[in-house]
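Lab meeting, item 3. Inverse folding demo.
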């Protein structure tokens, strides 16, 4: 994440340093505070209800409540973990291990008062904003193991993954770790949120295995109206997801928000046109999926490109995501239920690699730090992407193996999967039909 002040890009660790007397101490800005609070609410809306409804519509009707429950419970669980220790170990100085992990100085949110600032906003509103990122990232993974996982296994995995994966990676990228020092062009979480959750989703899909009807029965979305509603909430909330990373209410933040919208529109139209050409019909599922893919692609780029560049990044991300959907499900026969890796993993990788290209001033972008050219920045971005992939794969595999041991397996039994998780796990049904 980066802030822009005048023509200089300022890292979040640099903002924290401003609190020391040797630097110009920031003062509270009510405008910035209101802006970051509203964007935090928008990101929370992305997850509840946006992602929940988006995934819920994609599920079979007998499993709709189970995925809604998993997303809601994930937000509650991660909020508690983030408050107890996640924020401290992600966003404080870790001393001798600071390159990889923060410290314990703010566990239980100790040493924070109502006067504490991060930049020009209260630290509490900053914590709220970062908590919403910590919550939506593992919630995205739920789309990969939908319709066959034990609820207990889902919760244990989310808790372990948040501890082993999200907290240290967030520190390395955003909290003053070694990735932050590289000046990676990843404005709003292409690595930490999208590539990270996408790779984790693929690992979990492999570990848990395919749904029993996969490949023999068309496992189609049961309610596209619900998916559209969730997709629209995602699209609106994503403006806060990216825009809020500026942490300031100014023209630069508005550019980021506008770029995010254009990335979504570019992706939506690209998916629609490609589907129209090759499958003979433009589908609602396709255009909504395309908007999500476009927003994933623009997430790392939104603070570095111009509006035309944002359109291009969103549109160019889509063909790679479409190809990956077919590769994963049709050729490799892997059951990533809601295409989390194909959209978020692939989209994050493509967006991260396209960012330096469209950051060129010649193409309307913001350029690079002093002394760095296109190839240099591309190399830095590619190295951070490669690390994120490897780190996510390793930590996700460890978390899922521990979960399988603790919960004595990951899946519900065959009868429960056939009857649906709504009734067998939660004792409820999403829809009641009159006789």
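The presenter then showed the designed sequence:
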């Amino acid at each position: 994440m980066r802030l822009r002040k005048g023509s200089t890009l300022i890292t979040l660790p640099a903002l924290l340093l401003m609190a020391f007397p040797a630097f110009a101490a920031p003062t509270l800005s009510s405008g910035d505070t209101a802006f970051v609070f509203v964007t935090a609410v928008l990101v929370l809306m992305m997850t509840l209800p946006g992602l929940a409804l988006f995934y819920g519509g994609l599920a079979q009707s007998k499993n709709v409540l189970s995925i809604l429950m998993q997303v809601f419970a994930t937000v509650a669980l991660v909020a508690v973990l983030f408050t107890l220790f996640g924020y401290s170990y992600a966003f404080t100085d870790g001393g001798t291990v600071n390159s990889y992990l923060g410290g314990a100085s703010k566990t239980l949110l100790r040493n924070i008062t109502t006067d504490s600032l991060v930049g020009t906003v209260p630290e509490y509103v900053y914590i709220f904003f970062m908590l919403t990122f910590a919550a939506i990232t593992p919630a995205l993974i739920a789309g990969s193991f939908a319709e066959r996982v034990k609820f207990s296994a889902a919760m244990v995995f989310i808790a372990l993954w948040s501890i082993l994966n999200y907290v240290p990676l967030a520190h390395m990228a955003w909290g003053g770790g070694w990735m932050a020092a590289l000046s990676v062009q990843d404005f709003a979480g292409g690595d930490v949120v999208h590539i990270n959750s996408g790779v984790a989703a693929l690992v979990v899909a492999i570990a848990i295995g395919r749904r029993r009807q996969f490949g023999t029965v068309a496992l189609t979305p049961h309610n596209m109206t619900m998916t559209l509603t969730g997709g629209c909430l995602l699209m609106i909330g994503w403006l806060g997801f990216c825009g809020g990373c500026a942490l300031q209410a100014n023209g630069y933040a508005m550019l980021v928000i506008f770029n995010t919208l254009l990335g979504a529109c570019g992706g939506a139209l690209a998916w629609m046109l490609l589907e129209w050409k090759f499958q003979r019909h433009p589908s609602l599922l396709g255009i909504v999926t395309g908007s999500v893919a476009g927003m994933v692609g623009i997430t790392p780029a939104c603070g570095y490109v111009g509006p035309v560049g944002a359109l291009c990044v969103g549109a160019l991300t889509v063909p790679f995501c479409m190809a990956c959907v077919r590769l994963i499900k049709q050729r490799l026969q892997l059951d990533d239920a809601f295409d989390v890796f194909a959209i978020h993993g692939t989209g994050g990788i493509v967006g991260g690699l396209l960012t330096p290209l469209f950051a060129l001033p010649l193409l309307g972008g913001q350029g690079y730090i002093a002394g760095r050219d296109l190839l240099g920045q591309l190399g830095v971005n590619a190295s951070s992407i490669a690390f994120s992939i490897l780190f996510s794969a390793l930590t996700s595999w460890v978390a899922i193996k521990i979960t399988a041991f603790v919960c004595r397996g990951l899946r519900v039994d065959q009868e429960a999967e056939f009857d649906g998780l709504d009734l067998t796990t939660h004792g409820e049904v999403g829809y009641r039909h009159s006789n």
